[in-house]
Amino acid sequence: xxxxxxxxxxxxxxxxxxxxxxxxxxIASVSGAPSPRLVGRILGEDGQDxxxxxxxxxxxxxxxxxxxxxxxxxxxxxxxxxGQRVDLRKYRWQRDPADDAGSGALF
Length: 107
Hints:
By secondary structure, the chain is mainly α. The chain is built from five helices and four strands. 42% of the residues lie in helices and 7% in strands. Strand 3 and strand 4 (85-86) form a beta hairpin.
């Protein structure tokens, strides 16, 4: 992975606002990362200063090893869960198309 892609993934994660969530796949799609797993790897290795808690698995659940802290942080921002699942229809981040300036991003 090159440094440019790494920074693009970090920038997209940083742009997810409080009170919203995105999936690893959403971040991969917007940033041009080849897979959601790469997004997870970047968060795991270099995501301590990012709003990592706003990034969820495709089914709306947190990373199993971080579930309690992640859901607590999300609740503090007004994102409620049903058990351990966040309703993506309600809380999923919708990227402002103006932010993309013709990049063709989906969110």
